[in-house]
Amino acid sequence: MTPPRAPFASDPARSRGRRHFEAPAPTRSEFQRDRDRIVHSTAFRRLVYKTQVFLNHEGDLFRTRLTHSLEVAQLGRSIGRSLGLEEDLIETIALAHDLGHTPFGHAGQDVLDDCMKAHGGFEHNLQSLRVVDKLEQRYPTFDGLNLTFESREGILKHCTRRDAQRIEDREPGGVAARFLTGGQPSLEAQLCNLADEVAYNAHDVDDGVRSGLVTLEQLEQVPLVHRYLRESLRAYPQLTDKRLLADTIRRMLSQQVYDIIDATRAALDTAAPRDADEARAAGPLVRFSAEMRHASTELKRFLFANLYRHPVVQAQRDRAEQVLRELFQLYLTDPSRLPPDFADGEDHARACADYIAGMTDRFAMKEHERLTGTKLIPS
C-alpha cells in the first residue's frame, strides 16, 4: 500500500507552473505529464545508444545512459515511496537528468567543454535543461517540452555561479536562483541526486567485474563491497562468480536504500518542515548517514582509480575524444555540414555543440568515418 504524500513533498496541484500556459490534463497530474513528455522525447530514446563507462558497441550487457536512468528512477521511487515524497516528480527528474549527456560519456563532455571554451563552455547538466527547454521540437507554438518548474529545477543538478547568473538574467527567480542564493531544490530533486550516485556505484561495480577490468578480489579491499561480499558468502558459502557478484550488489544496494531512508527521516524529524518550501529552506535533508557517506566515497575513489582510469577504458576514451574533437572542427569550419535544424548563424559554435551532444555513440563514429574516411573506433 502506497503511503500518503507527506506535507513536505512537492504537490503537483501547487506547481509553480510552466513557462508557456497549458490547460490542465483531465486524467494526469502535472508531474505525470512531464514524465510522459520525457519518455516520448527524441533525446530519451537516444540514451539507449549512449555510453555509460564502456562504449555502446563493446557488449550488450553493459549499462547505457538509458539503463542507468531507469535504475536511478527505480531507486528513487522506492526510497521516495517510503518517505512520502512525490513519486512522479522523482521519476521525471531521474529519467531526464542525463538527456544532455554527450556520446562517449564524460570523455565527450570534456572534449566539448574544451572546444567551447571561447563560446561559454559546455556542461552536460546544463545541456539537459537546454534539451527540455529548447532543443526538443514537438509542439506547434513553443520550443522544448514546456516542463513544470519543479521538473526543470530537478534536472538542473549542477551549475556554476557564472552559468546560474546567465539563466537568472533570462528567468529571474527561476530554476537557477538557488545557485546564487545558496538554496536547495525540492526533496525529490535531492533524492534523485543521491539515487544517481547509488546507481552509478552499483552498476559500475557490476560492469567492471563483468568486463574483466576489475576483480572481486580487488573489490574486497573496498570496505563497502567487502562487508556485503562476506555477508553473502556466510549465507551461501557455495556462491561463485555471477551469483556472488549479484548477491553482493543486491545487499549493498538494499543497505544504502535503508540508510538513506533512516538518515533522511532523522533529518526531516529535526527540521520539521511543514511544506515543500520549508523543506527547501532547511538545507539538504536527503542524505546518507556519515558512515555510509564515507563508505560510498571510498568506493567511488576505487572505481575512479581502477575502472575509469583503466588503460583499456583510457585507450577508448582517447579515440572517442579524437572523434568528437575532429567532428566539432569540421562542423565549425563548414556550417553546411550541419542539418538545417541546427543552423544558427548567431551562435554557430553552440549549434555545433548541440548537434554533437545529441549524437549516439555509433552515429558519432559513423559520421566521423563518413566525413574523414578514417575509422578510429572499430565496431
UniProtKB/TrEMBL annotation:
<dbReference type="GO" id="GO:0008832">
    <property type="term" value="F:dGTPase activity"/>
</dbReference>
<dbReference type="InterPro" id="IPR003607">
    <property type="entry name" value="HD/PDEase_dom"/>
</dbReference>
<dbReference type="InterPro" id="IPR050135">
    <property type="entry name" value="dGTPase-like"/>
</dbReference>
<feature type="region of interest" description="Disordered">
    <location>
        <begin position="1"/>
        <end position="29"/>
    </location>
</feature>
<dbReference type="GO" id="GO:0006203">
    <property type="term" value="P:dGTP catabolic process"/>
</dbReference>
<dbReference type="Pfam" id="PF13286">
    <property type="entry name" value="HD_assoc"/>
</dbReference>
<dbReference type="InterPro" id="IPR023023">
    <property type="entry name" value="dNTPase_2"/>
</dbReference>
<comment type="similarity">
    <text>Belongs to the dGTPase family. Type 2 subfamily.</text>
</comment>
<feature type="domain" description="HD">
    <location>
        <begin position="65"/>
        <end position="201"/>
    </location>
</feature>
<dbReference type="InterPro" id="IPR006674">
    <property type="entry name" value="HD_domain"/>
</dbReference>
<dbReference type="Pfam" id="PF01966">
    <property type="entry name" value="HD"/>
</dbReference>
<protein>
    <recommendedName>
        <fullName>Deoxyguanosinetriphosphate triphosphohydrolase-like protein</fullName>
    </recommendedName>
</protein>
<keyword id="KW-0378">Hydrolase</keyword>
<dbReference type="InterPro" id="IPR006261">
    <property type="entry name" value="dGTPase"/>
</dbReference>
<dbReference type="InterPro" id="IPR026875">
    <property type="entry name" value="PHydrolase_assoc_dom"/>
</dbReference>
